[in-house]
Records
---
Amino acid sequence: MQSVEQRDEVEMLSLMLLIRRFEERASQQYQAQKIGGFCHLYIGQEAVVTGAVAAVRPDDYIITAYRDHGHALARGTSANACMAELFGKETGCSRGLGGSMHFFDKRHHFYGGHAIVAAHVPLGVGLAFAIKYRNQDRVTLCFFGDGAINQGSFHEALNLAALYRLPIIFICENNLFAMGTSVKRSTSLKQIVDRAEGYDIPGEIVDGMNFREVRDKVAEVAESIRKESHPAFLEVRTYRYRGHSMSDPASYRTKEELEKYRLDDPIIRLRAQLTREGKLTNEQFDQLDKDAKETVLAAVKFAEESPELPVEKLHDYVYFNGAKS
Amino acid sequence: MREITYRQALNEALAEELERDPNVFLMGEEVAEYQGAYKVSAGLLQRFGPRRIIDTPISENGFAGLGIGASMVGLRPIIEFMTFSFSLVAFDQVVNNAPNMFMMSGGQFNIPITFRGPNGPAHQLGATHSHATENFYASVPGLKVCTPATPRDAKGLLKTAVRDDNPVLVLEAELLYSSKGMVEPPDDELLIPLGKAEVKREGSDVTVVCYAQTVPIALKVAAQLEEEDISAEVVDLRSIKPLDERKIFDSIAKTHRVVIVEQDHPFCGVGAEICYRIQKDIFDELDAPILRVSQEDVPMPYNEHLEHAVLPNAEKLTAAIKRVCYA
């Protein structure tokens, strides 16, 4: 396994590109009615999960909310399995039984994909509890949005994590809007990170449009946790370019605001950093982007051609009877 | 066999499962240092230590969710609700997370968790503390629900629940914690399968289907009616879900009359489901309409007389039995 510093930044850039192109294609396929239900896109926030994943080990635990496509992809779930899940196919990462909001990948220690706002934060604390119970050298990354911080389960979970000194990093992806309600209109605090202080959990603000800053901060915190178990809180400031979900035109914000953030795009930013440092040429970038687009197109084809779970298997996923298929 | 209380039986079950499997831990309000609000976990902290017997703050949603998360990676939590009336604060975790995970992860994550604690009306606790939650939870696919009425059943069902690979609710009978009964010695492994009812008293004239706190009522009434030449067979469901309809049907095939006495509310109550199944599958066996005795459809009043009027009780059950027997 590569250490944090050695994880190739070019590889991480290509992962961000994969997420971006995947989401764009998902949007298109949704409009073509190949994808049903609710679909929340991660475009604009790529540096958050990519930076965080780059900073931890593959067997550390990761759990998130419903805007989860990027988290699965960053963790190593294939674009094929992710797209097939959106298409509701048996080859999907949740066999087509979860859908956009409920991606899971046990093999990659990705524990979902949870669609009730903040209801998974206690689950993340449970993952961290298990780490400490077994005295393992692991960290849990628990992602959620700014909309989660006013739910009771969030508060109960933070208190429990602090009380039991559990190895968990609460990562608030503050994209400024809980659906259409801005943080200003939802939260009495001036800054979200202050929530952590209320539970005596160390917290910091991180620029979520800057891959390197996210990676370095998560790495620093994870190292501290591995030395001596404790919870930590990061308010990662980011922005989603699209609406809350596919059905949301996001008319609650101005074009100017969106443009401002687009200029600070996390992909452009990392590309510029790498280019400036002579680590990436324009040709190389174009090739990475082309590869990402091709991977995603192939995923659409894979999803389209994949079978659906037959109705006869409907009852196989209600109770576990000791033999997993 | 020796005689122990329902409370002791549960305590033995917990101790034996904690002893057997290092992945099992007990978590809840006052379970450790206080020795359990109802003393079910008495002595466990001393025996197993604070790593495995864990006090929580008053945060039902939080610690229920913690248990579910821990069970995603293979631990087998026993989560105690001080009463199932408080489980409603954690309803989202119990209903939306625990039973859904297996399906929505495409079979990757089963949740081997046990939620346990007292359930059902006790005595003058008022509306908020008197909920019988079995019909809420039994309606959720992915959950299993059992309702032991005797010390033996309490021990055997709890041990089975802990070993089950799915979320199981053990709804203990608050009023029966001090009741006594014969239970095998600790050296004999006592496991009672979920979904198996038991005939607690044989009879030939009428079947009384009951569970949890209504079992002693049914047994008492059956004994009294014997003197009036009515022979009642008492079928204790033991589990609400899965439901042992075979045992119910077999009894009715013998008696052709049935009264269901349940501790929940009448609307969409457990008895409503059982009625449906009886009329659907063994309609021709019936010689009389099915009657149900349940709580009245009102929030629980504090006043003792009014509470008595709301609860299923011996008088109501006796009247219902006589009606179906045309006695």
---
Amino acid sequence: MEKWQLNKYVRFVLIVGMVLSVSVMTIGLAAYAIAPGSYQDVSLSPLDIPAEIGKGNPIAVIDLGILFLIATPLTRVVAALAFYVLDKETKMVGVSVLILIVIGIAVVLGAS
Amino acid sequence: MDIITAVGILLFSLGAGFLGSMLGLGGGVIIIPSLSLVFGFPMHVAIGASLVGVIATSTGAASYYVQEGMSNIRLGMVLETATTVGSVIGAVIAVYTNQQLLAIAFGILLVYTSFYMVRRPERLAAPRVEEKKGYFDLAGSYIDKKDGKEVSYDVEKLDRGLGASLGAGALSGLLGVGGGLVKVPVMNIWMGVPMKAAAATSNFMMGITALAGAVIYYGYGQISPVVTGLVAVGIFAGAMSGSRIAHLVAGPLLRRLFAVVIAVIAILMFLKGLGVLTVV
């Protein structure tokens, strides 16, 4: 496959991640502005976010937007990995997997 | 948080994203001193917000640079293997490091930034003379919008680039910056990548470098959602506009002005680190 195709896939992932995360964070910030001080400005565990959004907690909405943003570069590595697998580029598949492994270690360290 | 603080954080973040995307930096050199000195947030909160902000700069700017073919994705990903390792190490160290020590370390980084912005030597890339493929086939090309000509280049000294990227990653995790201050000159001077492609590739890489650190900060509860949300939204807007007008701006003047501002901030950070100054 050509270089511009990889660029196209990566750009698509970045745009989707950007729109999604900014939209969600903006909604959360607007909701927080309506009732500032009602909620503690402390990040929630990702597992608690859905339930807290259900309760109308704006901090949970902002957290969700932050997680979407954090996930965006990760998703573009996965997209590149899929591209390289289809293109049978063994070396770049190895590079992509190595990046994902290090991110995985960071997640484990953060969670612990 | 009152409305004036919120608007202030948004405005500073807008400026950070704007300048960062044009200069190949993540914007952390503006965000961290702003949050720490102007708004009085603890260094750890400032660094956590900055790391997420760096991802925002990277996402906003890279979406444009990738479309234009300026970011060398293959080179960026190969170097990311080193920056992510460095970032994880740096973030773990930072979580257990004293705030004043972090402020002094950041002050030293700012002095270097200021010096780099004034001097900023640029190596002009030698044109490709033959179609040779290195181990990862990292050679790149892009159309320079200034004169409409295609610029092709080879990538040299990958081993040195990987070593420097490890250091840039550690800097990112430790101090919450994008690491572009190290990556851009290394790619240009050591690896022979033209400055515009180096800045665009640096912007592309920053997202994944900062991600490794941001995940650890999130896990350790060092991310303040409201502050971080304001920083990210402001930076996005700045990065989107900055990357689009980068080629129209008089670079040398902008860099000198930026250098003066950074030098002043460096002095304030040193004073904070030494305990002389708490909040401006």
---
Amino acid sequence: MLDTMFFYMFALLAVAGAILTITMRSAVHCAISLIASLAGVAGLYLLQKAEFLFAVQLVLYIGGIMVLFLFVIMLVNLDSAAKERQFHRRWAGGAVAAVLAGASALWLLSKGAPSFGSPVAQAAPSPDGNVEQLADLLFRQYLVPFELASLLLLVAIVGSVLMAKKRTS
Amino acid sequence: MPPELTQLLPASVPLSWYLVLSAILFSLGIAGFLFRRNIITVFMSIELMLNAVNLTFVAFSYHLKQVDGHIFSFFVMVVAAAEAAVGLAIILTVFKNRATLEIDEVSSMKL
Amino acid sequence: MPTSFIPTAADLLRLSPDIVLTAGGALMMVIEPLTGAARKARMAAIAVLLIAAAMALSVMAYSDPGTSFSGMLVVDGFSTFFRILVYGCGLLTVLMSVDYFKRERGSESGEYYALIVFSLVGQSLMASANELVLLFIGLEISSIAGYIMAGYLRDDKRNNESALKYFLLGSFATAFMLYGVAWIYGLTGSTNLDTVRRAILGGAMEQSGQMLMIATALMFVGFAFKISAAPFHVWAPDVYQGAPAPVAAFLSAGAKAAAFAMLVRVAASAFFPLSAKWEMLLWATALATMIVGNFAALRQSNIKRMLAYSSVAHAGYILVAVTAHSEVGIAAVMFYLASYVLMTIGVFAVVTLVASKGERFVEIDDFSGLVQRQPMLAIALTIFLFSLIGIPLTGGFFAKFYVFKAALDSNLTWLTILGLLNSAAAAFYYLRVLVVMYMKPAAEGAGPVDPAGIGIKAAIVASAVGTLYLGVYPSAVLDFAGKAAQLVK
């Protein structure tokens, strides 16, 4: 019962944040709304006993990525943009596409819903906590992707510095 | 309680609710990508889509009583961070060269 | 199944090309500040050595095929073929870039070569991944390096736009693909390709067939972006036109080959039980891609944009072989990609030379009288154009032949006929370049083509020799491809 109330609360936060992100005029407002949406999703992770992801979402996604977004928005100084047109002239096409996508997704989900079985009341209790289980998998089975993710981050660092560094000429 | 309300307040949240929610978030992300003009907001819509994906992974993972979905989610977050860094660097460079961030202005190469 | 922390020697051997390239690339990043501004070509030399070592190690790893790291990585004929192919593409791109940077002074840096090396790691992973996680990481490594390279000359507005479009649309595509993977995980309980196939065969189809089709459709949308299939091809002309010519070659040849390897492996391995259901959709996509690519290319006057649309059309031909969903089809895909990579690199190398500093001369008319200005270059370009058209004695001919043969073997008669018609129509825009080269006199405004450095000469000669080799003696490569097409054991 309490679970459901929390679900509604976080889901509302996530969806409201998402709607505001794609409709607000100022880029800073969009960023703040996205932060709210991400916080809602983080709450949903916590509800599903994904404690590690909850923490990573808050620290990495909100505390890292969105702060980076805000820095760039400040650097780019979009005051003038706030006064200009902010939606495509041909927005009807995009709206139709998105509504169709959403409606078809919902319809298909309703058709396929019975195949997902009964709702999970309680996850089977295991001796390890969530982080221990994740660590076990990450360092044994998923070792190679984990190491290569560090290569990915190296490429991102090299690339972003290359792109954005000060021109010396 | 009227029967409709008991339907809306089950003892625990079924999987399909999470999937519907992530489908809604994904569609909102697509909508934002397709019809916003400001490049940074377009990129924020992509982040919304990736969040919907993560939510799907976690929801299925909880349903299947496995932790593998969390691992994939974790990797998606890592990639999202890397893409954010690179993408924002590219956006900064575009802005430095053109002083505008409207998607229509940046499209000089036509069919 | 949990394994021990320490990988076995066999595991390490199978991953060794990637390990060498990663370590070498990191070493390049460390050495880079120590090389002076005028000596950046040394970084290119290091890159060449690394890639050659990786090619040698891939061949060595093939002596012990199998899966490693708890089923994540698979080394078999298919992955070795594509590893060698993308490494070769990377090597030729490095050679091409050295010459390119001689003209664009002041913007060469070791990071460019390091990015190529890292991108090759990603592409090699895409070809040899047996698990969707590793596939995704490899795809992202390759793509992110590609976004940066496409926008490498920061002050050039065309590069900026190219990088931005590639980045936005590439990320959009990745999000679709990931959503599909999330659903596959939910419906089958795993992201390992073999486990997914067993789950589909075991009964997931009956339980949730519709959602499974939706999930594969979502993944296909993501893959279709990466291979520039219609209607998800719109990024390709702008990105290839705006990026520096060597980068356009790298993306158009190597990244596309890796993306096809990814598509074929996932389709043949995990979604093999579903292949009959997807034939209609693949049929339509292949046809649309060929038509869009060819008919748009006819209207172009900028050679890079024309080559971009032509690469879209070639992706259509390869999709015809994918539609055949047979072993012959997979072998045809592999052969086509081998010849496609060689002719694409060759053509873009010639374009790099003719385009000159700042890529000023990129209209088709700028090629007029090339046979008088630079006869050897004109001959090389003729070989590549003949191969692109599909004239006998070049690799392109046999490539198309095997693709359509595979299609006919799978009873795709209409698609074959339409494909051949498309191929004939495509000859027009390639012939236009040939006519301009040979028949038109050199325009007064066209400057002399700069002398070619040894690197780019080697790249052009290697591509031309490779194209002719595949045209005269295709059986060696084709037999290997045929044996390697046994993906599903």
---
Amino acid sequence: MMHRELRTHIISLLNADTRLDGRKFNEYRKPIEVEHGIIKTAEGSAKVKIGDTEVMVGIKLDVGEPYPDTPNEGTIIVGAELLPLSNPEFELGPPGIQAIEIARVVDRGIRESKAIDFKKLCIEPGEKVWMVIIDVCTLNDAGNLLDASSLAALAALKDTKYPKFDGEKVDYKEKTDKKLHLEKMPIAVTVIKIGDKFIVDPDTEEEKVIDARLTVSSIEDGTLCALQKGGDFPLTSHDIDKMLDIGIEKAKELRKHL
Amino acid sequence: MTYKQRIDGRGFDETRPIEAKVGVIKRADGSAMFKIGNTLAYAAVYGPRNLHPKFLQDPQKGILRCNYNMMPFSSSGERVRPGGSRRSKEISLVTEKALLPVLNLEEYPNSVVDVFIELPQTEAGSRCAGICAASMALADAGLEMKDLVCAVSVGKVADKLLVDLDYSEESYADGPVADIPIAIMPNSDKITLLQMDGEVKKEELMKLLEMSKKVLVDIYEIQKKALKEKYQGVEE
């Protein structure tokens, strides 16, 4: 293993009930900051900080043709750019597997919770629907991009207003007062397993030594809407039981920042 | 055909409001933000660091690599497809050439200094904003520099010569437009970036170069102030 020394150190800290930066196991870094409406060229935007991790999300709305099997529904498209500006290890080029996973997990949380009613995105059945394009851009990666991206995506959606559409073309210069309606507030919390301990909000060092992770997306009433297990080691159903409890509990806390 | 007044009420020799800040990206070796009007640029510097693949290495000196990128939601029109365009590649190239003269990379053979410029929001003048941010980020990274680099666009809209064109001026329909991005090294009074598109007479261009110098002095002061601000309160 590449980070054996680091791992031994982190585990000995966890056994003493603490972490590298002195946080509790279920404690997010501080401050958590959510800024809305920072980008004028986007229909909605937000910047989220969790400790030193900083992520920006911009929403563009476009009009397109619906999929043939869902003629009355618009859709969402999520992209994530792990910008080389935000981490010395990120490289230029097409999205790698980490970026794709983040985009897909953010997508599933929003899609499966039905946070956006796709039917309300319909302009003309079978012909024209709104497409909500959600782009995640990382500014500073100090760990836990997944949770920061999910929170920023929701914050940006909450800030989104439709541009003017005259039936032919979208006029991006003119925003209307009509807001994109959010039916639910899905929040992703990634719970990490290192040894026999569970923690949230890993920093860069902790991310290097994880055994397994479970990203838990849930809505206000605790209903789960998306899950993603990662990491090289398996989990027991007992682990999952614990991790779900932590994920649902912490989502409630994060949701207060929106 | 006369352009009487600028839409935002500025004087013809005035830039839009400018903000600058250093040290905005914690993980970078150096970083800066530069905002002019609605155009916002972040720059991060990584390096000098090892350069791979090896055949790109120069055993005599380090090399500079710049990348200019517009975020997908940064344009006032449609979404910008991620992954770079011919335009962004060309801007990356001229940015590199604009910055290289102030650096001394001879002490870093086989290495690279990477400069990543990201634009979250643009409304004309983005390459100049990127260069201003990048030059501050290089200084913040502690690299040996002969000078800073300051950049602004100047140009002509109908019959008027002016500085820092905004989007409505770049796309002015009732008369000829010239858009001329310029970067200078303020202390040695040398030009490191010069591009132009549109139409302009040679005499007018020379006049515009003079006009640009006046505002670039102000931009230089803003950059220096932002650099000093980061280290205020730090004990020697």
